[in-house]
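Quick one:
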Amino acid sequence: MRIVELTEGTRKNVLNDLLKRSPNNYSEYEGTVNEILTAVKTGGDKALFEYTLKFDKYRLTPENIRVTAEEIREAYDQMDPALVEVIRKSAANIRAFHEKQLRNSWFDSKEDGTILGIRFTPIGRVGVYVPGGKAAYPSSVLMNVVPATVAGVRDIIMTTPPGADGKVNPGTLVAADIAGVGAIYKAGGAQAIAAMAYGTESVPKVDKITGPGNIFVALAKKAVYGHVSIDSIAGPSEILVLADETANPRYVAADLLSQAEHDELASAILITTSRELAERVSEEVDGFVKQLSRRAIIEKSLDNYGYILLAENMEDAIDAANDIASEHLEILTANPFDTMTRIKNAGAIFLGEYSSEPLGDYFAGPNHILPTNGTAKFFSPVNVDDFVKKTSIISYSREALQAVHKDIELFAESEGLTAHAGSIRVRFEE
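Output:
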């Protein structure tokens, strides 16, 4: 991996490189996506089935679009029982973590008859998108569905593309069954997003769409936002390791590669104050890459978006980490908990040498659907709040309103909204 001195100039260059990966920079695909969305919105099942035949080579019908109970049983039979048990354990950890996020409605009353509050209610129907083929990730099924069930969502559907034989990845089906999905539909790509956003004869309209996908899925989610809610526009995966001279170079190298193998656009960055660590990590990376199954992908990822940034001191290193606002941030310093207190921007923070990033991907419990491309400066991981609505509650007695009605009337009239003022004044006419 290339080793670069961390300066103001190199920091800006790294940030510019990373931002090039944003889905917002792929406008050349928007026309195709909008065409698909419009076709499904107006044509319903007919358009959805035509696109599925074109892109997935499978002929959908109203009778075969929904995954059957028998297909789910077959998926269990195809899975290693030990892996099924691991998925169950992971789901339990995710559920336990997210249950701690639940919030209760509250009401605050005063002696004059004023009652104010917030009421939390779950979203009515959620649609989860799951990629198919080699990109099928049962872990992402759990991370999308379990928080929704914890929030109290009663109707959760899923869309995922079928293979040319009409089959769905068995890991996806098992994870969906364990997590609590109500119905699974064989549809993928932008056309599946359209089906969930607008509804078709076979696929019900949802209120919110979550889940990762390729650039067409990302742009489709962006386009339907407003018709439905969405979780986020996910960019390529990324990891930043913040380390000092105490870090184990072999651990650091392995952790960087855990994200570089996702795809050619993935980013892996080490920021360190130790030149010796930087050089040893670079050597370890070279050794690991020769042994890994996704070598070609990793090499492209590291060539384009892999960096070892050498900082003069830990303050500069932390400043750079906050600027980058990485999806995953590992802290491998002498006192990682102290270092963490100075981190403002990160999707998820992993502390210490035995808290490597895949622990969060698969098993620990916190959500692995995280803000990317610097959006950790203002976005959060997927959580229970993503699946609830907050409704304000307001109740005033005559006594309470009488004490403030002239203030409200004055405020409304200052904005030229005399009907607003009248709505208050009419209650105190002689």
